[in-house]
C-alpha cells in the first residue's frame, strides 16, 4: 500500500512539474516566501499570506539536515510527496491505536498490532482527492494534516495507563505548537477535540465503587442521585451505535459534572492543552486577528450554512462507506416484504439514535416488580413500580423511553435548516470571482440559481446528515430496531433506560490490567473475522460530540466555502468510522465475495477505487484543460497567464 501510494504521488508530482513548472495560484505566494527562508531572510514576510510559517520552517530544517542548497519550485513540491506518504502511514497508526483503545474499554486485548482495516483506512485518507491533489503542489494542506495526525497519535498514546508523563506533557505542547504553525484553525482539533477527549478520559479513570440504583419516588431523587454518581466519576458514555439523543445529553452532562467536581484531576491531564490555548489567545491579541495577512478578506463571520454543506461533501467523497447506512432503502427496492415490523417499534431514528438498549420501549418502571435486574456488582435489585413514583417522574420516564421527543427534534432540525438557508447563506466574493475552482460551479448551478433552488436542497442536506451519522455509528437508517445485541457497556450510568450488560467490578480491574500490558507483536495483521478484532467497535458518544463541536468551530467562522477547509473534519470523521461486515450477508453477492467481506471491509475497496477515479479525473482536467482569462470583448486578461481548474 505504501509503495503504491508513493508511486501514485510521485507520478502526479512529475506530471505537475512538467505541465506547470512555474508557481501556480497560491504557490505564487508560498514559493517566494519559502525561498526567502532558504536564504535566511526570516524577517521578510508577504502580507498576502494568511497562514503561519510552519511549512517554510520545515523546508528550511530539512534542507539544513540533508544539506540541500536547491530551493526551486520543483524541490519544494517534492516535499509534499513525502508528506502525503507519511500522512497515510500516520493515519493508519492512529486508526490502529484507536482500535486498541476502544477494545481496552471493553476488556479486550488485541492480538494483532495492526489491523488490515487500519492500514486500508490510512491509505484512503491519503487518497482523499481534496488532500492528494495538493501533494503535487506547494500548499500547506498536506503538512498541516500530517502534523495534526501526529498530535492525534500522541493524544491516543496519552490515553493509556502509562502514556502520560511530564516529558510527554511538554512534548504535547511542542507538537501542538508545530501544528498551529501550519494553520491557525488546527487549534480546534489539537485543543478542543483532543483536549476534550482527555477530559473525558480523566474522569473515566476516577476510582469509584459501583452501586445499584435505588428506588426513586420523585424526579428530584433522580437528579440528586445521578448528580452524586457523576461527581464521583460514574459517568455515562456508551458507544455511539447504542446511543440515542438522550444518551448524548446524559453523556455530556455526566462528563461536565465529573469535570467540575474533580478539577485537579482534569487539570493534571489537560494542562498542556490549556497552555496551547493560552499561547494561541496571546497570539491573536498580539496580531489583532487570527490570520497573519490579507486580514480584510478573511474576517471571521458566523456562517452556519457550512454545517449544511459538510454533509453532501462527505457523502460525495465517502459514498461507498454509506451503502450499509442506506441499505434499508435498497432492501425495500429489492424486497418489499423484507422488513418485519412485528414485535419491534417503528420510531424513526436519527443517526444519533442507532440501535441499542435505550431504544427498547420496555421501561423498568413498567416491568413486573418481581423481576430482578443485575446491578453493576452482579447483585439483584427490585426496580421501583409505577405506583410509588410521582407523576412528573413517570411522565419524564415515558417521554424519554418512548422517544417521542424525536418528532419535535427532527422537525426542529428541518426548521433550523430552513432558517439557516434563508438568513445565513453567505457567498464570499472569492467564490464569485474565481472560476478556476470547482466550488464556483457548484454554487453557480445550485445555490445561486434563481428561484427556490437553495431551499429544495434542504432534504438532501438532511438525508446526507442522517447517512453520515449512521455510518459513523456503524448502524443504518432502518426505521426499526436492529436485532444485533450490543456488547457489554462499561460506562453506563443514566436514568430512564434499561441498562445493557455492564462490566462487573472484577472485569473492570481485568480491563485495567489488560490495558497496562503491551499488545503482543505478531507477524500478521488482524482481519475482521478475528475474534478479538477492534475494527468494528463504534466510537464513544463523547468523542462523536467533541468531533461535532470541533467541526462546527472550525467551519462556522469561515465566510468562504473552501473544500480544503473540510479536510480535517473529514479525516477525523473517517478515522472514527468503524468497520462493517454487513456485505458478508448480502444475498446478491457471490459466495466468494461474501466470504471475503467477512475478512475485509469491501466498502474500503470501493472507496479506494472511487478516490483513484476522482483523482485521475481532476488531474486530467488540470493538465489538459488550460485556459486564459478574457474580458467580455475578448481582451486577454492577467497577462495571458495560463489558468487551470482545481479544488
Automatic annotation (TrEMBL):
It comes from the Eukaryota. This is Dol-P-Glc:Glc(2)Man(9)GlcNAc(2)-PP-Dol alpha-1,2-glucosyltransferase. Belongs to the ALG10 glucosyltransferase family. One of its GO terms (molecular function) is dolichyl pyrophosphate Glc2Man9GlcNAc2 alpha-1,2-glucosyltransferase activity. PANTHER family: ALPHA-1,2-GLUCOSYLTRANSFERASE ALG10, DOL-P-GLC:GLC(2)MAN(9)GLCNAC(2)-PP-DOL ALPHA-1,2-GLUCOSYLTRANSFERASE-RELATED. Residues 348-389 are annotated as: Disordered. InterPro entries: Alg10. GO terms for biological process: dolichol-linked oligosaccharide biosynthetic process. Residues 363-375 have a biased composition (Basic residues). Its EC number is 2.4.1.256. It holds the Pfam family DIE2_ALG10. Dol-P-Glc:Glc(2)Man(9)GlcNAc(2)-PP-Dol alpha-1,2-glucosyltransferase that operates in the biosynthetic pathway of dolichol-linked oligosaccharides, the glycan precursors employed in protein asparagine (N)-glycosylation. The assembly of dolichol-linked oligosaccharides begins on the cytosolic side of the endoplasmic reticulum membrane and finishes in its lumen. The sequential addition of sugars to dolichol pyrophosphate produces dolichol-linked oligosaccharides containing fourteen sugars, including two GlcNAcs, nine mannoses and three glucoses. It is a multi-pass membrane protein. The chain crosses the membrane at residues 110-131, 166-182, 248-267, 274-293, 308-330, 409-433.
Amino acid at each position: 500500500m505504501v509503495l503504491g501510494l508513493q508511486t501514485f504521488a510521485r507520478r502526479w508530482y512529475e506530471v505537475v512539474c512538467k505541465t506547470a513548472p512555474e508557481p501556480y495560484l497560491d504557490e505564487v505566494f508560498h514559493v517566494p516566501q519559502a525561498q526567502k527562508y532558504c536564504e535566511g531572510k526570516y524577517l521578510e514576510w508577504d502580507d498576502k499570506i494568511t497562514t503561519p510559517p510552519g511549512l517554510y520552517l520545515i523546508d528550511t530544517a530539512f534542507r539544513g539536515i540533508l544539506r540541500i542548497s536547491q530551493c526551486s519550485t520543483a524541490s519544494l513540491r517534492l516535499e509534499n510527496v513525502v508528506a502525503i506518504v507519511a500522512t497515510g502511514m500516520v493515519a493508519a497508526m492512529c486508526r490502529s491505536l484507536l482500535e486498541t483503545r476502544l477494545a481496552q474499554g471493553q476488556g479486550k486485548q488485541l492480538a494483532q498490532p495492526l489491523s488490515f482495516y487500519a492500514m486500508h483506512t490510512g491509505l484512503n485518507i491519503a487518497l482523499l482527492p481534496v488532500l492528494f491533489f495538493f501533494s503535487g503542489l506547494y500548499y500547506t494542506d498536506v503538512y498541516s494534516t500530517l502534523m495534526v495526525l501526529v498530535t492525534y497519535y500522541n493524544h491516543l498514546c496519552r490515553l493509556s495507563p502509562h502514556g502520560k508523563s511530564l516529558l510527554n506533557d511538554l512534548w504535547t505542547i511542542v507538537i501542538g505548537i508545530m501544528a498551529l504553525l501550519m494553520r491557525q484553525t488546527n487549534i480546534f482539533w489539537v485543543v478542543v477535540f483532543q483536549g476534550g477527549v482527555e477530559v473525558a478520559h480523566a474522569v473515566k479513570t476516577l476510582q469509584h465503587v459501583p452501586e445499584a440504583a435505588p428506588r426513586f419516588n420523585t424526579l428530584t431523587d433522580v437528579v440528586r442521585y445521578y448528580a452524586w454518581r457523576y461527581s464521583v466519576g460514574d459517568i455515562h458514555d456508551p458507544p455511539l451505535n447504542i446511543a440515542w439523543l438522550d444518551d448524548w445529553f446524559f453523556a455530556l452532562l455526566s462528563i461536565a459534572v465529573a469535570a467540575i467536581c474533580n478539577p485537579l484531576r482534569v487539570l493534571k491531564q489537560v494542562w498542556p492543552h490549556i497552555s496551547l490555548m493560552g499561547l494561541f489567545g496571546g497570539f491573536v491579541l498580539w496580531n489583532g486577528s487570527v490570520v497573519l495577512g490579507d486580514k480584510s478578506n478573511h474576517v471571521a463571520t458566523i456562517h452556519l450554512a457550512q454545517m449544511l454543506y459538510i454533509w453532501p461533501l462527505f457523502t460525495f467523497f465517502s459514498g461507498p462507506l454509506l451503502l450499509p447506512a442506506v441499505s434499508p432503502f435498497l432492501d425495500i427496492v429489492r424486497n418489499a416484504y423484507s422488513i418485519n415490523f412485528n414485535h419491534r417499534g417503528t420510531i424513526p431514528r436519527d443517526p444519533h439514535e442507532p440501535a441499542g438498549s435505550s431504544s427498547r420501549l420496555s421501561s423498568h418502571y413498567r416491568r413486573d416488580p418481581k423481576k430482578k435486574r443485575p446491578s453493576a456488582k452482579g447483585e439483584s435489585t427490585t426496580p421501583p413500580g409505577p405506583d410509588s413514583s410521582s407523576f412528573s417522574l413517570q411522565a419524564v420516564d415515558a417521554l424519554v423511553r418512548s422517544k417521542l421527543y424525536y418528532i419535535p427534534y427532527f422537525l426542529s432540525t428541518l426548521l433550523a435548516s430552513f432558517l439557516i438557508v434563508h438568513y445565513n447563506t453567505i457567498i464570499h466574493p472569492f467564490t464569485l470571482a474565481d472560476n478556476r475552482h470547482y466550488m464556483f460551479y457548484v454554487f453557480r448551478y445550485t445555490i445561486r440559481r434563481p428561484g427556490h433552488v437553495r431551499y429544495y436542497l434542504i432534504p438532501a442536506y438532511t438525508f446526507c446528515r442522517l447517512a453520515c451519522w449512521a455510518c459513523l455509528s456503524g448502524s443504518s437508517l432502518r426505521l426499526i430496531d436492529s436485532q444485533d445485541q450490543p456488547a457489554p457497556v462499561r460506562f453506563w450510568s443514566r436514568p430512564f433506560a434499561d441498562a445493557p450488560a455492564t462490566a462487573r467490578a472484577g472485569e473492570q480491574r481485568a480491563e485495567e490490567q489488560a490495558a497496562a500490558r503491551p499488545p503482543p507483536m505478531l507477524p500478521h495483521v488482524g482481519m475482521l473475522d478475528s475474534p478479538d478484532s477492534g475494527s468494528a467497535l463504534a466510537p464513544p458518544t463523547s468523542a462523536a460530540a467533541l468531533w461535532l463541536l470541533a467541526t462546527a468551530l472550525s467551519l462556522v467562522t469561515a465566510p468562504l466555502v473552501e473544500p480544503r477547509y473540510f479536510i480535517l473534519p473529514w479525516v477525523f470523521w473517517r478515522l472514527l468510522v468503524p468497520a462493517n461486515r454487513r456485505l458478508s450477508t448480502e444475498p446478491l453477492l457471490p459466495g466468494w465475495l461474501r466470504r471475503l467481506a467477512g475478512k475485509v471491509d469491501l466498502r474500503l475497496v470501493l472507496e479506494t477505487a472511487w478516490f483513484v477515479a476522482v483523482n485521475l479525473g481532476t488531474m486530467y482536467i488540470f493538465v489538459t484543460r488550460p485556459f486564459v482569462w478574457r474580458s467580455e470583448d475578448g481582451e486577454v486578461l492577467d497577462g495571458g497567464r495560463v489558468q487551470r481548474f482545481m479544488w
